[in-house]
From TrEMBL:
Residue ranges occupied by any Serine aminopeptidase S33 domain in the UniProt entry: 218-353
Keyword Signal: yes
Protein name, UniProt field: Serine aminopeptidase S33 domain-containing protein
Keywords for the protein's UniProt record, in alphabetical order: Signal
InterPro entries: AB_hydrolase_fold, FrsA_esterase, Hydrolase_4
PANTHER family per UniProt: CONIDIAL PIGMENT BIOSYNTHESIS PROTEIN AYG1 (AFU_ORTHOLOGUE AFUA_2G17550) (PTHR22946:SF12), DIENELACTONE HYDROLASE DOMAIN-CONTAINING PROTEIN-RELATED (PTHR22946)
Signal peptide per UniProt: 1-22
Amino acid sequence: MLGRWIVAAMVALVLMMQSAQAQQLTVDPETIVPLPPRFDMEAPASDVPPEIARFQGAWIGTWQDDRHILVVEHVRADGHADLVFARSDSAFNGMNREWWRDQATVVDGVLTMTGFRIFRYAFDGPDRLYMTATLKNGAVTSGALVRTDPARLAAGDRPNDWPWPGERVRIPHLTVRTPDGTRPITLEGTFYPPSTPGPAPLAIFTHGSDVGRNQLRSWSFSTEAHWLRDNGFAVLAVMRRGRGSSEGINGEETFGRDHDGGLTDVSAGVAEAVEDLESAIAYGRTLPGVKPGKVLLAGQSRGGFLAMHYAGLKPNEVMGVVNFSGGWYPYGPVTTPYYTNAGRGAGANVKQLWLYADNDRLYKEDLIREYQQAFAAAGGNAHFELLHGVPGDGHLLRLYPERWRAVADQYLTSLDR
């Protein structure tokens, strides 16, 4: 009986090994962009104006930092276009990969497709498109695409390095080295050179806490970067350590707590983030087209807090701060003193713009006003906007540029560059 049991177990083990060997290797679903089996490509007729005809072809890139393909199959002289729209899976945005055929129009140099969003594509270079997607509630996301060979695309060819909205760069860290000590760790950055000839002042944009499922996601901040470029800046978006493809370990969640688990200290994480931002500033000043001198700091959530905090530490390096929904942790007894210190350090010399919404899911209105009052009472100089009626979660205010762009444009114009 025992012998039969051993034989049966060995057979089962062999079958399991064969089954394991037969399993297909998996692919990250967010790298797959489905397409139809063929494209119905047709060369533009002779009567199609060049400003319309140049949209025809295949384009590959990103939309809201996920993979996106656009194939414009036909264009006509009246601006009518037939196209294929395709996108990848996106766990963050809750979208499934899919493709569909649709129609669009080209008017005044912009290809527009309407539906659940209004998609607009405009040239941002000879073979490059900048795209925006606007929801009915006003939320705007964006991306960039480059021209590609439709025949190779239809055959299944895909680039190893998927096109990205800006230039990917690696930022050497000023203080942290790899475990073997041979080199500095590097942070992921996206650089947007000036849109006009001549050097331009540098703007740095950085993200929020980005923990959990968001930790390995890279952010291009292409919408904010184009806004800043339109206002005369070169832009460097930076992923702090342990986020996106940045090396190192994210230590920003290292909190001091008392015996009962209550929050008592966030200084270790704040200090780490300051080192990352300092490294980005030093590297950004070496990039082509960047003007020497003070920098503009901008950020979302924890990134907005970091911009304000850094300006208080080193006011002589900072021309201004744009703070979108800024905060480190929603607990006033520990975090409000940082706003007091930042106001005292930056004083009246660093003009700042603070943009918040009264329906922020993380930072309630009373706490936001507490932060602003502490900053102002200590001598800080910030134009404070608490906006009403932002759809959904007001913490995502930055996605609604029509609500803040006018005051933000005016603020940027007022800076001494």
